[in-house]
Write a structure and sequence with these properties.
The protein contains 4 helices and 7 strands, in the order βαββαβββααβ. By secondary structure, the chain is an alpha+beta fold. The strands form 2 sheets. A 5-stranded antiparallel sheet has the order 2-3-4-5-6, with helices on both faces. Pfam families: Pep_deformylase.
Length: 196
């Protein structure tokens, strides 16, 4: 089942998501539906708050980046088949030089901006079988994880922009929250209320 993706302006995107237990109701269905939703919207990552669930789950699949001719063969290889579920993730460390990468978000369609993030992360999380992992990633894989991790912390990539950039996109963000946007996937808009 494809969930509608929650649009910018919905309070669920600003909530610090809650941890879940291994016996969380319908967890397998939630994960299956999140994958279907993400692929249906051509995303490379999706966090539970983006489908209205304030729980600490996100998924990533960096395969679409693997064909980027601007990347080194080593980076392409790292991104090929990189598909993971992160449950109750906790960022341990972010290190290295900050670098800019043009980011977008399924909850904020048609806005892409350069965001600076550190190159290397160490993260602790449970996979879909509730096996615990502590792993270190760098480059684009780290970038996608950082972006999705921010979602479960109630942070959006637009929060990381300069005051000037925020002013420049303010009108676009307002239109997204009102549903004044053309997109090819289902969304749920906070201010698109029906008239009485």
């Amino acid at each position: 089942m494809i969930y509608p993706i929650v649009a910018y302006g919905d309070p669920v995107l600003r909530v610090k998501a809650k941890e879940i237990e291994q016996d969380h109701p319908k967890l397998d269905d939630i994960l299956s539906n999140m994958w279907e939703t993400m692929y249906g919207a051509n995303g490379v990552g999706l966090a539970a708050p983006q489908v209205g669930l304030p729980i600490r789950i996100f998924l990533v699949d960096t395969d679409p980046f693997a064909d980027d001719p601007d990347l080194s063969p080593e980076e392409q290889e790292k991104l090929t088949g990189f598909k993971k579920v992160f449950i109750n993730a906790r960022m341990i460390e972010e290190t290295g030089d900050e670098w800019a990468f043009n980011e977008g978000c399924l909850s904020i369609p048609d806005i892409r901006e350069d965001v600076f993030r550190q190159d290397t992360i160490t993260i602790e999380y449970y996979d879909q079988n509730f096996k615990k992992h502590r792993e270190t990633y760098d480059g684009i894989a780290a970038r996608v994880i950082q972006h999705e991790y921010d979602h479960i912390e109630g942070i959006l990539f637009t929060d990381k922009l300069s005051a000037l950039k925020k002013r420049l996109i303010k009108g676009k963000l307002a239109n997204i929250s009102k549903g004044k946007i053309n997109i090819e996937y289902r969304m749920r808009f906070p201010q698109a209320k029906k008239k009485r």
